[in-house]
UniProtKB/TrEMBL annotation:
Catalytic activity, reaction form: [protein]-peptidylproline (omega=180) = [protein]-peptidylproline (omega=0)
GO molecular function (one): peptidyl-prolyl cis-trans isomerase activity
Organism of provenance: Methylobacterium aquaticum
PROSITE patterns (alphabetical): PPIC_PPIASE_1, PPIC_PPIASE_2
Family as reported in the entry's similarity comment: Belongs to the PpiC/parvulin rotamase family.
Name of the protein this chain belongs to: Parvulin-like PPIase
InterPro entries in UniProt: PPIase_dom_sf (IPR046357), PPIase_PpiC (IPR000297), PPIase_PpiC_CS (IPR023058), PrsA_foldase (IPR050245), Trigger_fact/SurA_dom_sf (IPR027304)
Keywords tagged on the record: Isomerase, Rotamase, Signal
SUPFAM superfamilies per UniProt: FKBP-like, Triger factor/SurA peptide-binding domain-like
Keyword Aminoacyl-tRNA synthetase applies: no
First and last residue of the signal peptide: 1-29
Keyword Signal carried by entry: yes
PANTHER family assigned: PEPTIDYL-PROLYL CIS-TRANS ISOMERASE HP_0175-RELATED (PTHR47245:SF2), PEPTIDYLPROLYL ISOMERASE (PTHR47245)
Length: 292
């Protein structure tokens, strides 16, 4: 049998990865993962506009701008779009410099304002990162959980109709043994729960209007209520289960805990800075009760 050249064999193997039938076992061959491309240095120049450079660091700043969010766009395309945007930005800025926009007093004030704002944002973000530690998050969670009072929850279904006579007929059918979900799908006027067989899931008492909540929390599990009137119409309720509301886990609360600690830390920083600063308002400052 003639020997296949290495080039031909490599070509056949490559084809086999696309059409496995050409090379037995090719589909099962584990291919090495492509090497990860190292991130460029922030000083790496990605484009030049009339001699002015745009760096990878500049692109990173632009990528963090919420106004330039590009959901659904892959990374490679996003980078290309950001480069084009930064080119346009640089061209426009150069034109504005030639037009001496930077000498305009209003522009100078805006520049000073946004510089102060960026400085404050960066400072607060840096200080918050120092304060929001895993230990602080856990301590706040434990403190919050300890202060939580046990709450009763009910898992219930309901059927909503327009009048009491219709509600009484439905209650009789259900107490006679008909399937609640089936009857709800046929008769309920509540679009939110009808397709789910009237299922409202778990809820605490304060989440529902008073007449409905009072009736649901008085019912024993498995029981059907008499018609209950609310501003929405007439309800027939079935309580499936009752329980004490479970305490949310640390993982479930982590994002809320982190957000609260971040806001509190930043508010505390501003409060302390105000207390130590010498603040003087002149007669030209608007008064709190001043009317336009």
């Amino acid at each position: 049998m003639p020997t296949l050249s290495p080039l031909w064999r490599n070509g056949a193997l490559a084809l086999g990865l696309i059409l496995p039938g050409l090379v037995p076992g090719a589909a099962l061959a584990q291919q090495p993962a492509p090497a990860a491309t190292p991130a460029p240095s922030p000083d790496t120049v990605v484009a030049k506009v009339n001699g002015a450079t745009i760096t990878a660091g500049d692109l990173a700043v632009a990528a963090d701008d919420p106004a330039l969010s590009l959901p659904g766009v892959d990374d490679a395309q996003k980078k290309n779009l950001l480069v084009d945007y930064m080119v346009d930005l640089k061209i426009g800025a150069q034109a504005a410099e030639k037009a001496k926009i930077g000498d305009n007093p209003d522009f100078v004030r805006k520049l000073a304002y946004f510089r102060d704002k960026l400085l404050l944002d960066e400072y607060l973000e840096r200080e918050a990162k120092k304060a929001v530690t895993p230990q602080a998050e856990r301590a706040l969670y434990d403190e919050t959980v300890k202060a939580m009072k046990p709450e009763e929850e009910v898992h219930a279904r309901h059927i909503l109709v327009d009048n009491e006579a219709e509600a009484k007929k439905i209650a009789a059918r259900l107490k006679g043994g008909e399937d609640f979900a089936k009857v709800a799908a046929e008769t309920s006027k509540d679009p939110g729960s009808k397709a789910e067989g009237g299922d409202l899931g778990w809820f605490t008492k304060e989440r529902m209007v008073a007449p409905f909540a009072d009736a649901a929390f008085k019912l024993e599990a498995g029981k059907i209520s008499d018609p209950v009137k609310t501003q929405f119409g007439w309800h027939v309720i079935k309580v499936e289960e009752k329980r004490t509301k479970p305490v949310p886990s640390f993982d479930e609360m982590k994002e809320q805990v982190e957000a609260y600690l971040t806001r509190k830390t930043q508010q505390d920083i501003i409060t302390k800075l105000r207390e130590s600063a010498k603040i003087e308002k002149t007669a030209a400052a608007p008064k709190a009760d001043e009317k336009k």
